[in-house]
Task: structure prediction
Amino acid sequence: MSELDKNLEEIQPKSDNPVSDLYEDWFLDYASYVILERAIPSIDDGLKPVQRRILHSMNMIEDGRYNKCANIIGSSMQYHPHGDASIEDALVNMGQKDLLIDTQGNWGDVRTGDKAAASRYIEARLSKFAIETVFNDKTTEWKLSYDGRKREPVNLPVKFPMLLTSGAEGIAVGLSTKIMPHNFNELIKSSISYLKGKSFKLYPDFLTGGMVDISDYNDGKRGGKIRVRSRILELDKTTLVIKDIPYNTTTTSIIESILKANDKGKIKIKKVVDNTAEDVEILVHLNKNQSPSITIDALYAFTDCEVSISPNACVIVDEKPQFLGVKDILKYSAESTKNLLKKELEIK
Result:
């Protein structure tokens, strides 16, 4: 053996564990991290870690005035170790829901699929609703940030059913979550009914409108399914108008699916015109002597004018993923809100 080989042998560390064992441990660590720290929301405040850190950062710099989103992203990076792109995406997503964040500038449009302007051109601040219902330092449990320099909330003391109001979607390692958004007023009424010991029903409600078949909703659990349709009206004998679009679609994707179906011969149309402005309006011009009612049925059958969605409510409970129904999530939220209000009264 040469002297070089001897030196290499001394330098290389020796391990009794085979590579397969190391891979198994590292993969489990990675899977757990993605589930707990990135993709799945907590049942306590209804937020993913990146959303919680953004809101906490905005609260730290809150002075009533709008802040450049680039500044908010930079501030959030003190708590979130995964770069500015994930923070910007999450910030825009929350801003477009128009609940916790007041926005200024071009924030895009969930109906058309238009993207928001660059973070240096748009501004945001916490809404008055968020300041009242999401933050209270005295009832918040804290932990150190990833580098130990700052403290961040374990969960925010949210006093309304955030998770069911906004909905959530995420893909982790080995599991995923898809929770439908619900109507805020209906959630509050259902919370009151639960606290009074009365029965209640919960069904999805979408910002983009449309019609929904909830016969197989299954309380938002795995195995359920809902069908969401556009609202298509007959403007005249040669023109149809699409007024609402299904959840998770855009006017662009709807038009592309119509043109694709036309190319395949599934439907026969003359042209499609997108007149969407304040309200969704897609005009579908038909050929002469073509039946509008048959074309409407074909649009539902062969395009994105009707989509099927499979809910899958998975949340983090006591640092473990659990599959729950939306009623169970609402009950947890109502009890949590009651306990938080009790704590606040005790502190006062």
Remarks:
- Residues 42 and 318 are 9 Å apart (CA to CA).
- The first helix runs from residue 3 to 11.
- The chain has a mean pLDDT of 90.
